[in-house]
Automatic annotation (TrEMBL):
Record region (Domain III): 156-205
InterPro entries xrefs: DNA_helicase_Holl-junc_RuvA_I, Hlx-hairpin-Hlx_DNA-bd_motif, NA-bd_OB-fold, RuvA, RuvA_2-like, RuvA_C
Domain Helix-hairpin-helix DNA-binding motif class residues, every copy: 71-90, 106-125
Complex formation: Homotetramer. Forms an RuvA(8)-RuvB(12)-Holliday junction (HJ) complex. HJ DNA is sandwiched between 2 RuvA tetramers; dsDNA enters through RuvA and exits via RuvB. An RuvB hexamer assembles on each DNA strand where it exits the tetramer. Each RuvB hexamer is contacted by two RuvA subunits (via domain III) on 2 adjacent RuvB subunits; this complex drives branch migration. In the full resolvosome a probable DNA-RuvA(4)-RuvB(12)-RuvC(2) complex forms which resolves the HJ.
GO MF terms, alphabetically ordered: ATP binding; four-way junction DNA binding; four-way junction helicase activity; hydrolase activity
Protein name (record): Holliday junction branch migration complex subunit RuvA
Pfam families: HHH_5, RuvA_C, RuvA_N
Organism: Paenibacillus rhizophilus
Chief subcellular location: cytoplasm
Database matches in Gene3D superfamilies: 5' to 3' exonuclease, C-terminal subdomain, Nucleic acid-binding proteins
Amino acid sequence: MIDFLKGPVVHLEQEYVVLDVQGVGYRVFCPNPYAFAKQEGPVTVYIHHHVREDAILLFGFPTREEQKLFRKLIEVSGIGPRVALGILTGGTPDHVISAIYQENITFLTKLPGIGKKTAQRMILDLKDKLDGLGTANFQTGLFALEQNTESGELSWQEARDGLKALGYTETELDRVRLALKKEGAEIDSVDILMKKALKLLYVAK
């Protein structure tokens, strides 16, 4: 089984990246492919190698912690790889872990593909199995789920870098930033910000 891949990103889409590993292109589905857009040279992507009857799929993450959390999520009944990837797209690993420790069903049901029953199963199945994936703050329930202004700015900077790599100008990005603020998108994840920004940029054309 493939544990990680290392090579330059040669192609980027909304759902996946293509890594060139010694002349072989690997399509790897990621929570936020655009996070790799600003990196130059070879990148290391930690892989979950998923095999089923009709397909062999690679899911990739920038850290081992995200790889481990993904694997914990797909152990929950009703959560397959695609739903688990959507969870990590809709919320940062820190927030997902914290919500599970705090039994915050309201937060969990806002994640893509997660209803109330699945959120309850996540809490029941994972609350005692996430040791080592979060800091002491997550484990004691002291981590605040609400993102502050600083973290919102960091998310936008990462999304902005990805959009610049796709060829958009500073003027276009400044205009989109104002529109996103009006929509109250400050607490969105990087991937959601990217998708909303691309939609606005497409409409503007």
